[in-house]
Recover the amino acids of this structure.
């Protein structure tokens, strides 16, 4: 963590970046230093755009993980090209379709982060910051967490993460993990319309989660990836087709249970997890949000932050 | 004294030094520390290193990424201990009406209950229990009545376990992931060596405050030895050799007459061959201090000279996890040969051919992916 970054991905030409990825390249994602070696034709261009603002780092360090990705040869003719991920020399899952390589890479990095940082409490939550305070949006898959997060990140909130609410045990400081945000299915078109300035990677159809496309995190979010924010608002969002906006306070006990259940590693951390979740719920305003219209949801979130400021 | 001529892969020379003395961690240049951590993670010894680093006071001097990974391994090891203790608690309750049946914990849970030094930060997942064979049906029945079930078991596997092996098909409780293996012996029925479970039950030791027992010190080491040389799972081999080294050093210092009785016990349990190998390779590779008299006595367990020469080439090569970026074909072959050997000594030839061809067929069918958790963790 002491060595200065050499440059950013965007400062390299696409050809330099592609060669770097082929030979092995260090990239810093917030607190995580990843060593990537990707031998996949066509992947580097998408990554060059999505990873534009991330620092490129030298190899003289301890990395979070070394991830390699390569095409696998199939003995049987007519089978689609596959891609194999190796994390420190071992496959964390079976080979996936080569056409899904970008999504597979992003999931692989997330998996490595989860598996290797059990010393932190990891909430399955989007996190954004305003006026130095953090808004947590914990949700189950399919509840519109990433969509709402992407929208807020393009309306004055600083993105900390669309996926990980990361804290050291017994603190309330959310640590940023800005990563590309994977929109799914209908939300891709929704965000294209809502934030035309958003840079969105290629649409990848047919994944486990349907069609996926990744949004580049705003440059400011990546630049300020060492600035944490104190938990202040805890909102459980749920997108419900045709629903009017509902933002209602919920009891702390209920917020506690939902937040604890939603953590990736609550049981592993044991007492530390309990104390951390309790600390957040003690100090945060807790709400449930139902919405169908993004603009209304965003207005409600800014009202929340303004009321608290006043 | 034997000459230290055995092969140790170059990157492992430094990693082994760290496993012996964790204070060296903070003196390593970052790139070398990175490689050492990757190797030690692969050997599933990161939790152990984390505990040692903390005790040596060197943890907080490391780069943040190293602290994170080591702390993570500690948290996982701590959680495994909690879930193992909870599983034992539930098993205790399930077996409450069988108070006279001796139930002996083996391996990870035994180290945990006995508090041996290798238990600190040790990653383990299964609860292995040894029960007299005549009581096995009653114990299995109690567990099945209380929702321990055998998951994803084919008819072949069920038959294989019950007819040929030393354990029942693995059980786990419906609501929890912990695997419970019920053994009636420490070696397969079909193995040429016949260690007597009755002798081991007779010597087993009480654990204060627990209904579970642990093997007597020498038996505990001998079981670890059998597991390493007859288990066939080369992925954990280095960790198991480290277990043996730890236990030998610990019991030599804490158990009166440990070395004096060691070889006689190995002989009584029909485990001279594996005990010979274990003493040879812990001494050669990990520098375990073994009294000369025991080394001399152990020569009776040695195989023929050509076999020993072959094992001396194969074991060190297969024992150390591969360099993650530069795996060697030779090592893969050594592992395959030792895997076949571990079955060769456990089964009659025809049965071995049948079993290995079935396993090969199933593995090819299922594809090469490994268990997600164990691979990335």
């Amino acid at each position: 963590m002491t060595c200065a970054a050499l440059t950013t991905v965007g400062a390299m030409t696409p050809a330099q970046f592609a060669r770097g990825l082929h030979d092995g390249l260090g990239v810093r994602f917030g607190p995580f230093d990843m060593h990537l070696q990707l031998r996949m034709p066509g992947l580097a261009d998408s990554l060059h755009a999505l990873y534009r603002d991330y620092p490129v780092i030298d190899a003289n360090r301890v990395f979070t993980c070394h991830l390699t990705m390569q095409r696998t040869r199939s003995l049987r003719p007519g089978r689609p090209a596959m891609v194999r991920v190796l994390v420190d020399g071992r496959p964390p899952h079976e080979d996936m379709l080569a056409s899904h390589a970008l999504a597979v890479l992003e999931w692989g990095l997330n998996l490595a982060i989860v598996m290797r940082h059990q010393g932190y409490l990891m909430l399955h939550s989007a996190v954004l910051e305003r006026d130095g305070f953090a808004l947590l949006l914990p949700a189950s898959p399919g509840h519109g967490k990433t969509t709402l997060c992407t929208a807020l990140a393009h309306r004055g909130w600083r993105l900390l993460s669309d996926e990980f609410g990361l804290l050291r045990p017994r603190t309330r400081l959310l640590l940023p993990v800005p990563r590309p945000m994977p929109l799914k299915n209908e939300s891709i078109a929704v965000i294209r319309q809502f934030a035309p300035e958003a840079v969105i990677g290629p649409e990848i159809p047919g994944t486990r989660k349907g069609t996926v496309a990744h949004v580049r995190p705003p440059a400011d979010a990546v630049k300020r990836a060492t600035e944490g924010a104190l938990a202040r608002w805890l909102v459980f969002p749920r997108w419900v087709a045709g629903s009017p906006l509902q933002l209602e306070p919920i009891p702390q006990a209920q917020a506690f249970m939902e937040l604890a259940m939603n953590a990736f590693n609550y049981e592993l951390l044991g007492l530390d997890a309990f104390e951390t979740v309790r600390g957040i719920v003690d100090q945060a305003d807790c709400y449930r949000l139902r919405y169908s219209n993004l603009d209304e949801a965003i207005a409600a979130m800014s009202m929340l932050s303004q009321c608290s400021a006043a | 004294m034997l000459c230290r001529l055995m092969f140790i892969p170059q990157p492992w020379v430094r990693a082994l030094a760290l496993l012996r003395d964790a204070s060296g961690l903070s003196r390593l240049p970052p790139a070398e520390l990175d490689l050492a951590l990757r190797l030690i993670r692969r050997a599933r010894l990161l939790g152990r290193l984390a505990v040692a680093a903390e005790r040596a006071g060197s943890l907080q001097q490391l780069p943040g990424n190293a602290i994170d990974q080591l702390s993570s391994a500690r948290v996982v090891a701590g959680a495994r201990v909690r879930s193992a203790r909870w599983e034992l608690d539930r098993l205790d309750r399930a077996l409450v009406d069988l108070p006279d049946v001796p139930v002996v914990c083996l391996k990870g849970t035994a180290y945990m209950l006995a508090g041996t030094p290798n238990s600190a930060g040790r990653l383990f997942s299964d609860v292995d229990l040894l029960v007299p064979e005549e009581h096995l049906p009653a114990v299995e029945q109690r567990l099945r009545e209380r929702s321990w079930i055998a998951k994803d078991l084919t008819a072949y596997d069920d038959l294989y376990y019950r007819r040929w092996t030393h354990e029942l098909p693995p059980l786990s409780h419906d609501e929890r992931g912990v695997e419970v293996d019920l053994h009636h012996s420490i070696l397969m029925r079909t193995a040429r060596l016949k260690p007597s479970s009755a002798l081991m039950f007779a010597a087993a030791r009480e654990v204060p405050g627990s209904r579970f027992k642990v093997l007597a010190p020498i038996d505990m080491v001998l079981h670890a030895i059998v597991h390493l040389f007859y288990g066939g799972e080369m992925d954990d081999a280095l960790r198991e050799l480290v277990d043996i080294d730890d236990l030998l050093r610990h019991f030599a210092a804490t158990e009166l007459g440990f070395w004096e009785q060691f070889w006689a016990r190995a002989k009584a349990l029909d485990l001279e061959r594996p005990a010979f190998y274990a003493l040879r390779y812990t001494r050669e590779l990990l520098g375990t201090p073994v009294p000369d008299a025991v080394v001399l006595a152990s020569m009776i367990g040695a195989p023929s000279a050509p076999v020993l020469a072959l094992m001396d080439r194969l074991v060190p090569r297969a024992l150390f996890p591969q360099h993650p970026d530069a795996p060697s074909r030779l090592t893969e072959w050594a592992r395959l040969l030792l895997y076949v050997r571990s079955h060769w000594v456990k089964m009659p030839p025809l049965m071995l051919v049948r079993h290995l061809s079935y396993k090969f067929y199933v593995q090819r069918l299922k594809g090469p992916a490994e268990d997600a958790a164990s691979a990335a963790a």
Notes: Residues 367-377 of chain B have pLDDT under 50 and may be disordered. Chain B has 17 helices and seven strands. The first helix of chain B runs from residue 10 to 20. Chain B touches chain A through 38 residues (CB under 8 Å).
